[in-house]
From TrEMBL:
Family: Belongs to the Nth/MutY family.
Cofactor(s) the protein requires to work: [4Fe-4S] cluster
Name under which the protein is recorded: Endonuclease III
Keyword Acetylation: no
Enzyme Commission code(s) on record: 4.2.99.18
Pfam family, one: HHH
A GO term, aspect molecular function: endonuclease activity
Task of the protein: DNA repair enzyme that has both DNA N-glycosylase activity and AP-lyase activity. The DNA N-glycosylase activity releases various damaged pyrimidines from DNA by cleaving the N-glycosidic bond, leaving an AP (apurinic/apyrimidinic) site. The AP-lyase activity cleaves the phosphodiester bond 3' to the AP site by a beta-elimination, leaving a 3'-terminal unsaturated sugar and a product with a terminal 5'-phosphate.
Origin species: Niabella yanshanensis
């Protein structure tokens, strides 16, 4: 199977079995999504979803969060990983959105990465989820799954290198979906330590499966 054929197989499979994938983070607007994604770094979506309602009740929008202090926010996110840093990031993000973007969440990667707590991965998530922009966020799941299947080269040693290969080979109209396909596949099937290969519909295309003779 050529790499082109492998990509087509994966796209065809997910288009049938996961036609409308969505983030598992719960949100109602771009502000809430941005807060949730910042909190989700090295933390489960489940934990984030248990925490954000308390934040949004007290700080329902950018304007109210921008007037808070990190000390105000910390008790609300105590159960999240790295609460000290994330408290500072959330307040700093809100203040910068207020001062530099008239209180509106920017929708370009270049603008988003200027916000505290927002790296390229987060910016790609926001733009692809909110506006379906063809941006590929590479987290640990996407990094692992894309290399295991053989969608990207084993020499792609950084998230950016993986991102570039995926974006190059996936139709732009599908990239926002492919981001979720790979994340959810990595979260529930192609898990890190014991991948559930026998349950996986990608066996025919997967280099990891073929190499490890799990069939």
């Amino acid at each position: 199977m050529t790499k082109k054929e492998r990509y087509q197989f994966v796209v065809d499979y997910f288009s049938v079995h996961m036609p409308e994938p969505e983030t598992e983070l719960v949100y109602d607007n771009p502000y809430q999504l941005l807060v949730a994604v910042i909190l989700s770094a090295q933390c489960t979506d489940k934990r984030v979803n248990l925490t954000t309602p308390f934040i949004f009740e007290k700080y329902p929008d950018i304007a109210s969060l921008s007037k808070a202090t990190a000390e105000d926010v910390f008790p609300l996110i105590r159960s999240i990983s790295y609460p000290n840093n994330k408290s500072k990031h959330l307040v700093g993000m809100a203040q910068k959105v207020e001062s530099d973007f008239n209180g509106e969440i920017p929708m370009t990667v270049d603008e988003l990465v200027t916000l505290p707590g927002v790296g390229r991965k987060t910016a790609n998530v926001i733009t692809s989820v909110v506006e379906k922009q063809p941006n590929m966020a590479v987290d640990t799941h996407v990094f692992r799954v894309s290399k295991r299947i053989g969608l990207v080269s084993q020499k792609a040693s950084t998230p950016l290198a993986v991102e570039k290969e995926l974006v190059k080979n996936i139709d732009a109209s599908l990239i926002h979906k492919a981001h979720h396909w790979l994340i959810l596949h990595g979260r529930y099937t192609c898990i890190a330590r014991n991948p559930r290969c026998r349950e996986c519909g990608l066996q025919q295309a997967c280099l990891w499966f073929q190499k490890n003779s799990l069939n």
